[in-house]
TrEMBL record:
InterPro entries from the UniProt entry: TB2_DP1_HVA22
Family as reported in the entry's similarity comment: Belongs to the DP1 family.
Membrane protein topology class: Multi-pass membrane protein
Source organism per UniProt: Sesamum indicum
Ranges that cross the membrane: 50-70, 76-99
UniProt protein name: HVA22-like protein
Xref: Pfam families: TB2_DP1_HVA22
Keywords: Membrane, Transmembrane, Transmembrane helix
GO cellular-component term (any): membrane
UniProt key word Membrane: yes
Listed PANTHER family: HVA22-LIKE PROTEINS, RECEPTOR EXPRESSION-ENHANCING PROTEIN
Gene from which the chain derives: LOC105168779
Chief location bin: membrane
Subcellular locations according to the entry: Membrane
Amino acid sequence: MGGSGAEGFLKVLAQNFDVLAEPVVSLVYPLYASIRAIETRSAVDDQQWLTYWVLYSMITLFELTFAKLIEWLPFWSYAKLFFTCWLVIPYFSGAAYVYEHFVRPYLVTRQKTVNIWYVPNKKDSFSKPDDILTAAEKYMQENGTEAFEKMIHRGNRETTSTTNSHAFYDDNYTYEDDLRY
């Protein structure tokens, strides 16, 4: 009779493996690894974990959107667990692969090539208001009114470009007050 208690425990554990392992794999370990990545100077691990959290957010949004459909799929929790393991385990670099081959080409190549967000330098952040008019004036001062008009006309045309554009982030940008670097 003593063996049946352990056997019952193992049976419950096996039947609920996905429920027990999924938070550890998808939240606890990535949280720990993200904190460690913040404390290192390497940009590679920062990118890995930022990419993971973007994909985790997308998975969560998918689950929230299609909850009624997902509840009819008995294998969903196991599929999500295996997919999350593939994303998380550094040997596979699954998060980087999914981001580079699916997310980034869709989001980055379909955005406009001109960055409309003007982020001022720290020295003039209190001297004038930061709005779209200030950004337009600055663009015209640097590039001329003809270039501004061309940009407006180019934006009005609904063309999709297949070139790689990094309008919303710069790989070479560093924070001025970042003490890690």
